[in-house]
Amino acid sequence: MSDEFRLTPVDVRRMEFPKSMRGYDQGRVDDFREQVADELERLTRANQDLDSTVRSLTEQLRGFRDRDKALNDALVSAQQLRADVREQSEREAQLILREARAEADHMVRGAQGEAMRFSDQILLLARMRRGYLKQFRVMLERQLAEIAAEEDVPDPDPSAIVGEEQRSQGEPSAGNPRSGALFRG
Predict the structure, then answer these.
(1) pTM of the entire structure?
(2) Contact (Cβ atoms closer than 8 angstroms) between residue 181 and residue 162
(3) Tens-of-pLDDT digits for all 185 residues of the chain?
(4) Which of 33, 118, 159, 168 is in the most buried spot, having the most CB atoms within 10 Å?
(5) Can you give the three-state secondary structure of 60-99, one letter per residue?
(6) How far apart are the C-alpha atoms of 77 and 64, rounded to whole Å?
(7) How far apart, in whole angstroms, are the C-alpha atoms of residue 136 and residue 144?
(8) Distances (CA, A) of 83 to 49, 70, 73, 76, 77
(9) How far apart are CA 122 and CA 154, in angstroms?
(10) Rounded Cα distance, 12 and 157, in Å
């Protein structure tokens, strides 16, 4: 059927044919018309149902396509985000590694400087120790020499000391026993 001429079940039921002498059997034509109208009505309903189903399926298909596009867009976005996050993580890891290496180098240089200062201090203390020991040895040797010299000096004779003092000062007074050379103060 073309779009210009549409036949509906009502059209079939209302259609009247002119009567002629030699025409068709009116009862059979009416029965056929009723059957055609019923079939046309059934086919029209089926066609409407199919149109409705096609519209529904078309709408579902559009929804599926929209979801598919959204999923694809989300997948592409997720992949891009993953790539961006990975790239950012790698940049941050490289930065952290560079900073850690710089800090480690700084710490090593600091430790080396500290070790050098300790080494210098140890050398200074060792020199000071040697100098102290040398001075101590010289002082001890001097003391030992003085002790040895004192050992060579004979012990004084107390009677000689008393006699010598008495001669230089005269005799001690008889009433003061502490007036001798040993008791002068």
Answers:
(1) 0.41
(2) yes
(3) 445 567 777 777 777 777 777 777 777 777 887 888 888 888 889 999 999 999 999 999 999 999 999 999 999 999 999 999 999 999 999 999 999 999 999 999 999 999 999 999 999 999 999 999 999 999 999 999 998 888 887 777 777 777 676 667 765 555 555 555 444 44
(4) 33
(5) HHHHHHHHHHHHHHHHHHHHHHHHHHHHHHHHHHHHHHHH
(6) 19
(7) 12
(8) 49, 19, 15, 10, 10
(9) 49
(10) 177
- 3-class DSSP state of 170: coil
- Which residue, chain included where needed, has tokens 């002119």? 18
Q: What does the block give as tokens for 146?
A: 């003085």
